């Protein structure tokens, strides 16, 4: 019984580790994190850029606003060791403020270029933007281009349909509170945690059953042992 329980424990631990290692959250992707803000509001968007495995240092990060999205104001938090460049374009179609005045420019891209060593392997850096007003969309995608010191670039631009795991998923944030549960970010990790919790619950139940069975056995009377003596025979007279 104990050997079977140990095997169950080992299987669940190995399954949990494999799921964690295989989940999108555990891989070295460029992630986007939204702090507050919804459609029509201002929010903080953090791009977390890792130093890629088997790649040299990251020396440039460029995030582009999709052509069908118009964001009037983008402020960038200074990042030590990086130079900032924000490019703008004419809004198309025309865009107006709440008071009816036209908007002359909207942001098209934000680029950080390293003035020092950049992001090394095994490291990451955060690039924070205050953007607003955010568009009236459920999910805001932020195509990002990560350039390395050798001149090569990884384009984080691949769509992420539900259930898929592309090699270079586009960073995105969910702007609709009602759709938060369906957001790609964190769903894989939530599933892993749920299955791990279920596994440990099963193990706990099995251990409880084992303890009860053992306690019952310890209180059961011992079996009578054979004394090795033959029963007496009645005397037989001729």
Automatic annotation (TrEMBL):
Q: Mind telling me which Pfam families this protein's record contains?
A: DUF1775 (PF07987)
* The entry's keywords: Membrane, Signal, Transmembrane, Transmembrane helix
Q: Which species does the entry assign this protein to? A: Mycolicibacterium tusciae
Record's Gene3D superfamilies? Uncharacterised protein YcnI-like PF07987, DUF1775
Q: Which residues form the signal peptide?
A: 1-28
Ranges where the record places region Disordered: 219-238
Domain YncI copper-binding span(s) in chain numbering: 36-175
Where on the tree of life does the source sit, at the highest rank?
A: Bacteria
Record carries keyword Signal = yes
Family matches, as InterPro entries: YcnI-copper_dom (IPR012533), YcnI-like_sf (IPR038507)
- Tell me the protein's name: YncI copper-binding domain-containing protein
Give the transmembrane region(s). 192-212
């Amino acid at each position: 019984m104990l050997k079977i329980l140990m095997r169950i424990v080992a299987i669940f631990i190995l399954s949990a580790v494999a799921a964690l290692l295989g989940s999108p959250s555990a891989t070295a992707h460029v992630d986007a994190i939204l702090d507050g803000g919804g459609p029509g509001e201002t929010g903080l968007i953090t791009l977390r850029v890792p130093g890629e495995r088997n790649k040299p240092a990251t020396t440039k990060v460029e995030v582009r606003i999709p052509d069908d999205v118009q964001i009037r104001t983008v402020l960038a938090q200074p990042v030590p060791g990086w130079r900032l460049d924000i490019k703008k374009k004419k809004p198309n179609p025309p865009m107006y403020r709440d008071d009816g005045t036209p908007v002359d420019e909207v942001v098209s891209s934000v680029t950080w270029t390293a003035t020092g060593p950049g992001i090394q392997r095994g490291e990451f850096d955060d690039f924070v933007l205050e953007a607003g007003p955010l568009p009236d969309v459920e999910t805001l995608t932020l195509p990002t281009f990560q350039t390395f010191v050798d001149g090569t670039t990884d384009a984080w631009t691949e769509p992420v349909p539900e259930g898929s795991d592309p090699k270079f998923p586009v960073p995105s944030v969910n702007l609709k509170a009602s759709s938060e549960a369906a957001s790609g970010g964190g769903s894989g990790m939530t599933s892993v945690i749920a299955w791990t919790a279920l596994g440990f619950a099963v193990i706990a139940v099995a251990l409880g059953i084992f303890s009860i069975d053992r306690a019952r056995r310890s209180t059961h009377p011992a079996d009578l042992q054979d004394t090795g003596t033959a029963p007496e025979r009645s005397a037989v007279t001729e």
